[in-house]
Amino acid sequence: MIECIQQIPCNSCALACKLGAIRMENVNDIPEIDYNKCTGCMACAMTCPGLAIFLLRSGGDSGLVTLPYEFLPTPEVGQQVTALNREGKVLGKTVVKQVLTPKRNDGTALVTIEVPEMWLLEARAIKVGE
Predict the structure, then answer these.
(1) Do 40 and 87 share a domain, yes or no?
(2) Domain limits at 25?
(3) Which of 67, 92, 108, 112 has the CA that lies 20 to 30 A from 46?
(4) Whether the predicted model's global pTM rises above the 0.90 cut
């Protein structure tokens, strides 16, 4: 899911996608995903400077949200964190299921959390600690 809402000169997600699943007519367009081509590799999310790309996986009563995380220390798998919505309001406690760190220092870490299904379209950040 891409939540890029500003038409600014940026096409890092489209350039990162080796499968051509992200389309942009020009560098100022809002990117569009072709879900038939997307494999969920998350290369686009790791390179997005606007932290606007999320991977959502639904699975019954709960789901997984993979979100960009640029703070230190990076949380660890199994760690309990607080899920936040777009406004920074607390949704509740959750657990980190996966952490992907960039191979180079020019990317963003991606943290996957497990959330109740009703938070799948709401959880967009985490708070570590407390």
Answers:
(1) no
(2) 12-47
(3) 92
(4) no
